Amino acid sequence: MNKAILFLSIVFLNAGSLLPLAAQTTQTPQADNRQEVFLHTVESGQTAYAIATMYGVSQDELYRLNPGSKEGIKAGVVLKIPQKAADNYTYHTIQAGETLYSITLKYEVQAERIIEANTGLSASTFTTGKIIRIPNARKGEVKTVAPPIPSSPIPSSPIPSSPIPSSAQPATYTVQRGETVYSLSRRFNISPAELLRLNPALKKDLKAGMVLKLSAGAGDAVKADTPKQPKAPAEKEVNALLTADKQIKKVEPPLKVVLLLPFSSKQTAAVSRFVEYYEGLLIAVDSMRNRGASLELSVFDTGDGTQQLEQILKDKALLKADLIIGGVQNEQVALIAVFAQQHTIKYVIPFNSLNDDVLSNRNVYQVNTPHSYLYSKAAQGGCSLFAKDNIVIVRIQDDKEKEDFIRTFKEEMDIKHIHYREIPFRQETFVSDVKAAFDPQKRNIVLPTSSSLDALDKIRNPLRMLTNSVGGAGYNICLFGYPDWQTYLREALDDFYAMNTYIYSNFYADNLSPAVQQFYTEYKDWYSKNLINIFPKYGILGFDTGMYFFEAMKKYGSNFENNLDKINYHSLQTDFAFKPVSNWGGFININVFIVQYRDDFTVTRNKIHL
To answer: Residue 290: how many CA atoms within 13 Å on its side-chain side?
Structure first.
């Protein structure tokens, strides 16, 4: 391999440091105009903090409007969220029967502006219960207006389907039960916008018994010299915007990539990981160039804090970038995210899983799965795998207890009516306690509440003994555990195999697979060293991240988010399943694996598909 062919523009602000390198209820959301709130249906993995941050309100406000939410929220629960008067947007919960056209009428805002404010809006995301942002109406904007469509009209009499000729049209009309603005506009050959101009009370509601004006001559609400409104788009034309093909915006070669990492950080242990990540990214650049892609990589040392980063963001290479990867500390991530949003540049956060920028910035992609999403998906995957088994939770108290995951898993089992048992760990009586909880007719799934090696050591030998009982009458036992267990292979691998152990994780590299072996060989050829023996391996993470985004932008352009379901990268360690946090926010990686160590001494890695 000729590494000299790499077309790299590598810039170091601090080159000296880099010289060695090469009680709630689920309900259907309905409008709540009286309290000036909108309704948000909680999705799997969302937290009260994330929801409050997404809408720019405090957690205290959210708790005040939703008693009981302070103790925890569950997927499917509907929360009241206060509208913020100072916002440039109104948040709207899509109701059953609503269309993009009817919403443009209700808020007097052009459909194009609604789509611009919700760049993730499409026919598949415009669904009942979803939230969209409605930008404030502009002065002189071409608009049409109508009230919400009644959700359950009950017709009491047939409604004529053909319009009444203008010569026979009355000046006023009394609304009958079951009639809507649209049926009235068709019947009397008048546009919904004109009907509202004549009857401002329709902005609030349409009720049976209301007397509507059908012409300006029926009263003085509309003056004769009122200027004629520009023609508004037709209903079919507006709704078609949601299904219109979104053209791929091709990236002009070379693809300009910027890497921003603190290579001169005072945290020396972390620096070696950042260097390895960069080295893995370089191999991805080389791999893409071997496939005919043209890439330009610029590398900057951000140091700690933001002082150095602020100067870097003034560099012309940043302004021309198509893709930015990096940022470690929260203040660095926030600064880069603002820059990416201002200049419409895709921004990948490779390590941090605890930041707010992804909640409101469509350009942000967060690779490291937040714990709330990881736990939620792992719990759902566990319930799917073990629905017919006997699940035994062993409570072991230490500093690595996974209370959040255990709570999430138990809630998911309760929802799905999956029976489980929970026992405290007592050294002297553990064998008899766990035997009493086991079912000899079923597979017994054992989950300790702690991910520590000490907790695993306390249970693995007694459980192994129970699987090999004298006379072949052993119990069918499987362990279920945590990503951390990948670091205990030296101590516990034989037990993992013997008990068909399952772990959930957002990363896993099969060291025996040909693709991973090839990467190890290539890395050693390039850098004359092995990867650092940690999990995850940063060199592979850099390679996987680079390959995924380079391929995405090469094939699907700078707006590849419209084709996320078509990106089919086979990862070595970290896979990608990006989900938008909202119709206007960024994307988080929610991929989770179930890894199984089987008693035939093989290991399988499968994505959790829900």
So the answer is: 11
Structure tokens at 121: 């809006």
Could you give the count of Cα atoms lying within 13 Å of 169 in the half-sphere of its Cβ?
21
**40, 51 contact by CB (below 8 A):** yes
Look at residues 335, 376, 380 and name the one whose alpha carbon lies nearest to residue 588. 376
**Stated pTM of the model:** 0.81
Q: How far apart are CA 491 and CA 160, in angstroms?
A: 80
Separation CA 30–CA 19 (nearest Å):
61
- Do residues 567 and 349 lie in contact, with contact meaning Cβ atoms separated by under 8 Å? no
Q: In terms of C-beta density within 10 A (0-12 exposed, 13-18 middle, 19 or more buried), how is residue 365 classed? A: buried
Domains of the chain: 33-135 (3.10.350.10), 148-224 (3.10.350.10), 255-368+512-576 (3.40.50.2300), 372-505+597-607 (3.40.50.2300)
What beta strand segments (E) does 459-602 contain?
477-481, 502-505, 578-580, 587-589, 593-597
Residue type (1 letter), 425:
F
Higher pLDDT residue, 333 or 214?
A: 333
Rounded Cα distance, 347 and 556, in Å? 16
pLDDT of 317-374, one tens digit each?
Answer: 899 999 999 999 999 999 999 999 999 999 999 999 988 999 999 999 999 999 999 9
Query: Residue 112 above 90 pLDDT?
Result: yes
CA atoms 354, 356, 362, 364: torsion sign: negative
- Nearest-5° angle of CA 251, CA 567, CA 576? 110
> Could you tell me the CA-to-CA distances from 351 to 57, 237, 327, 346 in Å, in that order?
27, 43, 8, 16
**Residue owning tokens 């772990």:** 503
On whether the CB atoms of residues 1 and 525 are closer than 8 A, the answer is yes
For 299, the token pair is 């590398």
DSSP code of residue 225: T
The pair of three-digit structure tokens given for residue 243, joined into one six-digit string: 């299904």
| Closest by CA position to 582, among listed 194, 68, 6, 45 | 45
Instruction: Compute the chain's Rg from CA coordinates.
Output: 30
Q: Residue 253: is the preceding peptide bond cis (ω within 30°)?
A: no
